[in-house]
Amino acid sequence: MEPTSNENDAVRRRMNQLRRKAEKRRGLVTSSIDNLSPRDVRRLAQDLQTHQIELEMQYEELLTAQTERETLHRQYVDLFEFAPVGYCTLDAQGLVQQLNLRASQLLGAPRGAVLGRRFAQYVALGDERAHFYAFLQRVLAADASQSCELEMQRPDGSTFFALLEGVRLGPEEGAPRCRLALTDDTARRRAVADLAASEQKFRALFEESADAAVLLRDFTIVDCNQAALTMLGATRREQVVEQPALLLSPERQPDGTLSAQRLVQALEQALGRGSYRYEWLRHRFTGEEIWQEIVLTPMRVHGELVQHAVWRDITEQKRLDQRLRDSELRFRTVFEQSSDGMLLLEDGRYVDCNAAALHLIGAQRREQLVGQPAEVCMPEQQPDGRRTAEWFADHVETARREGSLRCETLMQRFTGEEVLIEGVLTPIELPGQPMLTHICWRDVTERRRAEQRVQESETRLSTALQAAELGVAQWNFVTDEVFFDARARHMFGLPADEAPLTFPDIRRLLHPDDRERVEAALQRAVAEHLPVEMDQRVVLPDGTVRYIVSSGQVAYSPTGQALSMTGVVQDVTEKKLVAQRLQESEARLSTAVQAAELGIGIWNFDTQLFYVDARARHMFGLPAEGPDLSFDELLAVVHPLDRELAAGALQRAATGDGVLDVEVRVQHPDGTVRHVCANGQVMYDEAGHPVRMSGVLHDVTQSRLAEQRLRESEEQLRTALSAANMGVGLWETQPQQVVVDASAAEIFGLGEGPGRYPAAGLSGLLHPDDLPGVEEQIQRSLQNHLAFSLNVRVLRPPMAELRYVRISGQALYDDHNQPGRVVSVVRDVTEFRRANLRLRTSEERLRLALQASQTGVFEWSFENDELFWDERTQAIFGRPYEDRRQSFNAIRAAVLPADAAAVAEALTTTIRDGVPFELEHRIVRPDGSVRHVASTGQVHYDEAGQPQRLAGLIRDVTERRRAQEELNSKNRLLDHILTTIPVVLSRVAPDGTLQEVVGAGLRRLGVADNAITGRNVFEAWPQLTPYIQRLLAGEKVQFVGEPPRRGEQTYFQNYGFFDEEKQSGVLFGIDVTETHQANARLAADAAFLQGLVSNIQEGIMAFDAELRVTEWNYLMEQFLEVKRAAVLGQPISKALPAIDIPRNHDILRRALAGEAQTYYNVSFSRREGVFDAAFVPLRDAQGAVAGVLGVIRDVTERNRLMEEATRLRLQREKEVLSAIMHTQEDERKRIAEALHNGVGQLLYAAKLHLYNQPVDEAHRASALGLLNEAIKSTRTISFELTPNVLEDFGLKTALEEICKRIPQQNLAVHLNVGVLPEPLPRLLETAVYRIVQELLNNVIKHAQAREAFIYVEVQNQVLHASVEDDGAGFDVATVTQKHGGIGLTGIQNRVSLLGGRLDIRSKPGRGTTITIELPLTTPEQPAVG
């Protein structure tokens, strides 16, 4: 090793001192030697001998020093040669003058081959060499050490990354030189790359996750993925990142807890448990509320505590839960707010009840009833002697067996009062739950008391009849027997206990003059279905003549056969009751008219005045109150153009020429015109003379306006087709003919013009090559109910001219779902195709020319400063392509400022003088890079000579300019070089004493050279004790040490050996802190990623670009039953042959192409269940796709829970609805019986009594007419509530009876009932009857139909029923969105209850068809009956 400058200086100073001493001594001797005395001579000789000895000793010291120097030189040569760092010395031209063994190994060439050559020859070509020369200049120009990272290339072509640290040698070394230290930095660079890849993989997992993910630190959001931004409705990351964790959260959560307090609790739970799941209410930036399920997981990253939070949007789940709760609340509301007592019974004890049940038995608290046995508040024994517990258990069992049971029992309120309760027991079965019994309590105490009062009333009636001496008689036409009660017998002079009478017996008692009249009146009443109202004289046996006033009614069978006649005499006690019933009947009539929004009009023929009610006056635009109208006043409100029509219709109806049915326009005083439909009929008196015309009026303005808008829309369509030069065709599949209009005939060259043509003839005009494809596509469209659009070639006659035609169409289907007609639109696109072809050809030639020359096109319009530049021009300017026009400033701003003046001058000259624009200049791209471009252009002028636009071409000539400048760039060096690599050299004595510690690496430790020399290494660096012991034992060591330092921890890669000659250990350390830190971060990130992958509740798999498996977590092992070790590093097709199918290949191929994909509810192949899958591309640091990340989420349980919740909710709804419907039907039956047996009989008795009263005949006739209407309405309501014919004769007879009751003039109903099994379940039979009844009511009220068809049949244990009409129809979607309308909600509920299906098909103006399908039995609803 060469001596240092300090050592040379010390040697020279020592020699100079010796020389001066020698000359001084020599001067002493030579100057006075002749004058010395012998004594002085002897002393001088002694001194000379002494100096001689000193010189000898000094010589020996010099020899020893030289030996030590040579030894040290060999040691330092060894350190220099075998150091783990390469060293080389370069001159100012970069020639290698000296290098050690490690440097030659790194450079991959023998030392001799490297010496004298340029170091740059071992630097990779390109910018790397320029960087090296700049580094060399910095080293030679700076006093401090410089460093640089370069890519090196060995002679064999292999490359590595080297860290160069250089320092300039002192001027005493002669010509400028520098010494470089080379370290192989490839491993560190790879570690950094691996760290970046790991970070990219984690970032991809973080960013591309389907779930929103955020990172929290100190209650602040420090990062988030795109899914989180989407969930919050954010458009920029700044809206979320660096925002508080309570971003968009309300002050309090729905449970009342402060959001801040709730967040602190969640963080504490997560720290305690390792992970914590909770729900959170937040708002989007749009203000919309969202519910989140948050999984919070704490973790440490680089020693810092952060929280990883996964957000999942559970708003929809919350809404479903809320709807489920709302549904339960609705049923709970029905349960709680029902006026009847509602209870649930389980295992003989009440588990729930409503307030009505508590009120019914006088309870104050629920505990008085809930949890109590079923016989609470009941007597110990029932009236029949049975124990109440046994009696109740038997009734519950009967209800479960029969489906429902009604019973009565006596209960005692908690107040001690007795109450009679009617109970309806209905069993409810819920899957997986104990059997429940729904009990409906109804207090029938008052009803029983009312029945008792009715009985008492009947007794009073009998008493009243007896007091009024009214007799009752009944004549049976079948047996000809006549029954008289005691009073009637007394009236006719017959004994009270005589045998039964016959009509001849009664006839003999009549006065001879009255017999024929009585018989005629009876026959007329029977034949014309009239009530019997007559008086006759009776001759008693004693000859007394009595006048009897008889009133009676004939009873008929369903076939119209007279069965009997019942009558009463002189009942005056019910006079007031008749008046009261009359008022009630009038009130019901008024309510019905008001509900139908109808006006009433009456034309009195005697006074010739018209009475109109308030609603009718409103239709006419008249005040609500006013006098009756005359004929002229009525016609005055009619539109002038309709007055003749209105007058004629009224006159015809008044003269008996049909009923009144007319629609006219009415003009209001404010000019508004309304359409009013009037229907009426003439009323006659007993003599057959017309007395008045009564009718109703209906405002139909909205219907007429809708019809007008439809006509206008059709006219607009025809106008649009004509303007677009389109033709219209109608293909009738039977009989295979096509109807075309004039435009279509012209397009196809049909000389006959518009009309009907055979379909085969038009097909013959198509090009033969197009015909098969056209037929196939049309047939496929007809089969799939799809519209079609075809481009075909037509050989237009007479010269077979080739034309291109576009045909678009849609099929219309008949009732059997078969295509009946096809409507199509045709358009001749021949010229359009030819123009497009010419344009494409021209554009393709221009595109190929520009592409070949790498030239872009631009055009600048001077008038509006608009710039058009194509994709290649924008790419030259470094811009992403935007298909929109911009200002020319976009180009001006990109010109390098130094070239801006030249460009502006050239443009001015071109525009002013009209010379071509040719210029080469520089531009600055948005990324800051400078490019050289060559632009050429020409200005275009208008007819007036004014410049209009500049069109030109532009090319990027940067590479050409760089090639020109590359020869000169070799002499320019960069002025920045990195410092020498920090290393530490230590020498350790056998006892551990540090003999020497030097090196630039000490600066990181804050220690000067040899500052710790003399200390024991085991005390200075105790952590190095094992390695130093092995070193001092003679072993070579290599390890990473961590010397103590305040602040940041440092790491040194140490290499050591034992110097046998010096008996000391030599240790060479390189500062690898940054590499170690990078490795630590990589390990931490890998551990974090592995922990995330291992704990996430989703299957994670990752593949590299060759589709080799790089990650496979524990859930993937469970999903596909393949262990992680079996697939890692293997191609996916080889590791899992079972999933090696084209579809999976396509998914991975698309992901590698950069496309993110998500699939929902995919079935597992190796296990039961379904999953959601997401595949996203993984990108490297340069943004290129380096692999694929797959995320699999098992959603089987989620789907099952949602289905189970829906099924249970529907089951509960069905059970409760079933119980309610049973109760409704029973209540209807009870009301019908009460109407028929109570109100009906009282009305009938009132009618009989009216005959016997001395009342004016006109009032009698009016009162009797109203009574007849009331009796008829009572019977109709009774029949509709509970048709006994349904229970007695079955569904078919009941439906026939419904049809008979509908007047043919209102609606013609056609019924077709197939063979039905006997018996049908009672609930099913009742449901079908009610549905058909409701649908017919809807047809009558809303459809305006003339005919209706009903079909009922059973096929494959399914009952099919449909109701069709030819009425106005309606829009199904609109009616469905209104949640019902025209009774559809009730029908849908019944069908759903029975597990059936409802189908509605209707279009405005085309009638309606409603079809239901009901299974005869369902698992949820057993057949009853």
TrEMBL record:
<dbReference type="Pfam" id="PF00989">
    <property type="entry name" value="PAS"/>
</dbReference>
<dbReference type="InterPro" id="IPR013655">
    <property type="entry name" value="PAS_fold_3"/>
</dbReference>
<keyword id="KW-0812">Transmembrane</keyword>
<dbReference type="Pfam" id="PF02518">
    <property type="entry name" value="HATPase_c"/>
</dbReference>
<keyword id="KW-0997">Cell inner membrane</keyword>
<feature type="domain" description="PAS">
    <location>
        <begin position="585"/>
        <end position="657"/>
    </location>
</feature>
<dbReference type="InterPro" id="IPR000700">
    <property type="entry name" value="PAS-assoc_C"/>
</dbReference>
<dbReference type="Pfam" id="PF08447">
    <property type="entry name" value="PAS_3"/>
</dbReference>
<keyword id="KW-0547">Nucleotide-binding</keyword>
<feature type="domain" description="PAC">
    <location>
        <begin position="532"/>
        <end position="584"/>
    </location>
</feature>
<dbReference type="InterPro" id="IPR003594">
    <property type="entry name" value="HATPase_dom"/>
</dbReference>
<keyword id="KW-0472">Membrane</keyword>
<dbReference type="InterPro" id="IPR000014">
    <property type="entry name" value="PAS"/>
</dbReference>
<feature type="domain" description="Histidine kinase">
    <location>
        <begin position="1328"/>
        <end position="1418"/>
    </location>
</feature>
<keyword id="KW-1003">Cell membrane</keyword>
<dbReference type="GO" id="GO:0004673">
    <property type="term" value="F:protein histidine kinase activity"/>
</dbReference>
<keyword id="KW-1133">Transmembrane helix</keyword>
<dbReference type="InterPro" id="IPR035965">
    <property type="entry name" value="PAS-like_dom_sf"/>
</dbReference>
<dbReference type="GO" id="GO:0000166">
    <property type="term" value="F:nucleotide binding"/>
</dbReference>
<keyword id="KW-0808">Transferase</keyword>
<protein>
    <recommendedName>
        <fullName>histidine kinase</fullName>
        <ecNumber>2.7.13.3</ecNumber>
    </recommendedName>
</protein>
<feature type="domain" description="PAS">
    <location>
        <begin position="842"/>
        <end position="914"/>
    </location>
</feature>
<dbReference type="InterPro" id="IPR013767">
    <property type="entry name" value="PAS_fold"/>
</dbReference>
<keyword id="KW-0597">Phosphoprotein</keyword>
<dbReference type="InterPro" id="IPR013656">
    <property type="entry name" value="PAS_4"/>
</dbReference>
<dbReference type="InterPro" id="IPR001610">
    <property type="entry name" value="PAC"/>
</dbReference>
<feature type="domain" description="PAC">
    <location>
        <begin position="788"/>
        <end position="841"/>
    </location>
</feature>
<feature type="domain" description="PAS">
    <location>
        <begin position="713"/>
        <end position="785"/>
    </location>
</feature>
<dbReference type="InterPro" id="IPR052162">
    <property type="entry name" value="Sensor_kinase/Photoreceptor"/>
</dbReference>
<dbReference type="InterPro" id="IPR005467">
    <property type="entry name" value="His_kinase_dom"/>
</dbReference>
<dbReference type="GO" id="GO:0005886">
    <property type="term" value="C:plasma membrane"/>
</dbReference>
<dbReference type="Pfam" id="PF13188">
    <property type="entry name" value="PAS_8"/>
</dbReference>
<dbReference type="InterPro" id="IPR004358">
    <property type="entry name" value="Sig_transdc_His_kin-like_C"/>
</dbReference>
<keyword id="KW-0677">Repeat</keyword>
<dbReference type="InterPro" id="IPR036890">
    <property type="entry name" value="HATPase_C_sf"/>
</dbReference>
<feature type="domain" description="PAS">
    <location>
        <begin position="457"/>
        <end position="529"/>
    </location>
</feature>
<dbReference type="Pfam" id="PF13426">
    <property type="entry name" value="PAS_9"/>
</dbReference>
<feature type="domain" description="PAC">
    <location>
        <begin position="660"/>
        <end position="712"/>
    </location>
</feature>
<dbReference type="Pfam" id="PF08448">
    <property type="entry name" value="PAS_4"/>
</dbReference>
<feature type="domain" description="PAC">
    <location>
        <begin position="1145"/>
        <end position="1207"/>
    </location>
</feature>
<feature type="domain" description="PAS">
    <location>
        <begin position="72"/>
        <end position="143"/>
    </location>
</feature>
<keyword id="KW-0418">Kinase</keyword>
